[in-house]
Write a structure and sequence with these properties.
Distance between the termini: 77 Å
Structural class: alpha+beta
Radius of gyration: 21 Å
Largest sheet: 4 strands, mixed
Number of strands: 15
Length: 281
């Protein structure tokens, strides 16, 4: 008589355990888990206090912005700053089951500096020679520009687009990190990905604020190297490819440090950041 009771208790225990696992998994993917301190989830976006989501944009003057952001009348903006990448040697090999298309090679890059965040509309608007782009949120990364247009802004700032090797080294480093922050841990609070059809949100038609995933920064301090917008980088032959995945990406392989895509031209999910000669150290 006791055996059915024991079996029932075991089944009940298994159901409870499964429920806990599912609860934790859903909580990890839930809206609050993807937004940093100082921003709150509204639909597929992370908006500042005092703002509301309207037609996909965080509208209104923010009452405050997260630490490290500038507060403007139209939204929060990550200020332009540079991070020193020390340079070194990286040995890449296709030993990851998701490293499709990776060719085994060793690359060496000299020290350089890289924008900590993707170039924002606020920064683009200050570029005298750049074409006008109308956008309601100054803190969103610039998209819809060609690699040549992007490089025009970089050149005006004393920089250029990063080379493909520099971009890869910034994301992976000599330790060959799978993701910019480390070997594991692709979750919604570290990267702006899966915002169109999940797993992190539904319905996105644009990226997130540049710098809005501080938990995903690289050890050197570079933000959004995985997700948000893919980024133009120069190949050895002078062409450009977009690297790092975007808010549209859904699978890990699109967000690994070595991920890249060929693009015919400007796209709503492709932005950029600039590289510069190393400053005094």
């Amino acid at each position: 008589m006791r055996r059915p009771a024991l079996i029932g208790a075991a089944v009940l225990g298994a159901i409870v355990a499964l429920g806990v696992v599912l609860f934790v998994a859903r909580r990890e993917r839930a809206d609050p888990a993807r937004c940093p301190d100082g921003l709150a989830a509204q639909g597929f976006r992370c908006c500042a206090p005092g703002q509301t989501l309207a037609q996909g944009a965080c509208s209104g003057t923010p009452a405050s912005c997260p630490s490290g952001f500038e507060t403007t009348s139209r939204g929060c903006v990550a200020p332009a700053r540079r991070v020193r990448i020390p340079g070194g040697t990286l040995t890449l090999s296709p030993n990851d089951w998701e490293a499709e298309g990776v060719v085994a090679r060793t690359l060496t890059v000299a020290a350089f500096e890289l924008d900590a965040s993707e170039v924002t509309h606020a920064r683009w608007s200050r570029c005298a020679g750049c074409r006008k782009l109308d956008h309601p949120e100054p803190g969103l990364p610039v998209t819809g520009v060609s690699a040549d247009e992007a490089e025009q802004l970089c050149l005006a700032a004393g920089g250029r687009l990063p080379s493909a090797d520099e971009w890869l080294f910034a994301a992976a480093s000599a330790s060959v990190r799978r993701y910019p922050w480390g070997q594991t841990g692709l979750v919604c609070r570290r990267a702006s990905f899966g915002l169109v059809e999940g797993p992190c949100a539904i319905g996105a038609d644009r990226p997130e604020l540049a710098g809005a995933r501080p938990d995903g920064r690289s050890p050197e301090g570079v933000l959004d190297l995985a997700g948000n917008v893919a980024e133009w980088a120069r190949e050895p032959d002078g062409s450009a490819r977009a690297r790092g995945g975007s808010f549209r990406s859904r699978v890990a392989g699109e967000l690994k440090s070595w991920a890249a895509e060929s693009a015919a031209g400007p796209a709503a999910h492709i932005g950029f950041r600039c590289a510069y000669p190393p400053g005094p150290h």
